[in-house]
């Protein structure tokens, strides 16, 4: 196995790393290739376009994040404890990022959603699916919480789950803007309010 | 007064219009000048850089939005009614945008906050000040609401006001991603939950 066989993986990893801080439009293929130590000429052997690469990067990012979400939401514990573990894990990611690189880069999915939207329909479609999946995962734990009597039954809805994920994305926006992960310390009390718990 | 005397204003207006849908990095000075009908050579007569122009665009955007915020929050009505008017007005802006251009472009301030952050410190600093001002405006109306007995006293805080603006930004993100302003219809019931009203 030569280096070429890992070039595709390296391109994906380099883009994932750079795109969270640089965004989509300011990140060029030359910079990605340099970071991945892949010759620029080889790029199009692996990916049709920066768009196509980005859809794969978004998928890989969510696969990683999804295992964390599913992991935290599956521990044998009351539903609200599981939800809290998920929010704590999300805040911990931003804290580690700040410790490692000095900046809170936020959520790649939220960053791309606001930077691109309708101008990159393939990426937008994938982001939409992923956020729908996040909302469904949260809705499932809300259903459990309602069954346990921890929240009112009418809070166990997709609408409340969406509000909760929106709250998370909005607070991550402020953490990124202030470059301060401590902004996320308030997430849990506000989540409890939203849930009427 | 020739056209030159309005060139600066036209550059600001063109950038404000284009940046909400295009973002910062994908928008070039040539495109701004073409849209503003200003010769590219004149750009640097008016603005030192795209960064400097963007800080002014952000200011102008917030000045317009701020009059709307202060207007809605100052009508002679109970505090929660005033807050609701503010959220309704925000949703109405996104609905009009969809009707006019076919796309929900979201909030210029939130878009730039997630696209740029620490890589453009001057723009980031201005965005931070503006969001702090938004949060303070909301906190003031929460203080009134608590004084009227409409919400618990402990909800009249900067922390709750920040959660409310975060909720708004997160829901605007989903409205932009789905290109559907109806996502914002849920804002009010979730706001009431957050406020324990």
Automatic annotation (TrEMBL), chains A, B:
GO terms for molecular function: DNA binding. It holds the Pfam family TetR_C_13. Signal peptide: none annotated. Residues 5-65 form the HTH tetR-type domain. Residues 28-47 bind DNA. Keywords: DNA-binding, Transcription, Transcription regulation. InterPro entries: Homeodomain-like_sf, HTH_TetR, Tet_transcr_reg_TetR-rel_C_sf, TetR_C. It comes from the Bacteria. PROSITE patterns: HTH_TETR_2. This is TetR family transcriptional regulator. It comes from Streptomyces subrutilus. The lineage of its organism: Bacteria, Bacillati, Actinomycetota, Actinomycetes, Kitasatosporales.
């Amino acid at each position: 196995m030569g280096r070429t066989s890992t070039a595709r993986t390296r391109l994906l990893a380099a883009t994932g790393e750079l795109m969270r801080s640089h965004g989509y439009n300011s990140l060029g293929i030359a910079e990605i290739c340099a970071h991945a130590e892949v010759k620029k000429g080889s790029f199009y052997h692996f990916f049709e376009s920066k768009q196509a690469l980005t859809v794969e990067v978004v998928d890989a990012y969510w696969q990683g994040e999804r295992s964390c979400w599913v992991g935290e939401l599956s521990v044998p514990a009351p539903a609200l404890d599981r939800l809290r573990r998920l929010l704590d894990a999300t805040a911990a990611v931003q804290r580690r990022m700040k410790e490692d690189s000095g900046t809170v880069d936020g959520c790649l999915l939220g960053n791309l959603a606001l930077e691109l939207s309708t101008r990159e329909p393939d990426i937008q479609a994938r982001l939409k699916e992923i956020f729908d999946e996040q909302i469904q995962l949260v809705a499932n734990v809300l259903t459990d919480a309602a069954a346990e009597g921890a929240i009112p039954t009418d809070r166990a809805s997709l609408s409340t789950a969406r509000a909760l994920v929106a709250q998370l994305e909005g607070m991550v926006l402020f953490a990124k803007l202030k470059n301060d992960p401590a902004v996320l310390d308030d997430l849990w009390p506000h989540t409890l309010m939203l849930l009427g718990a």
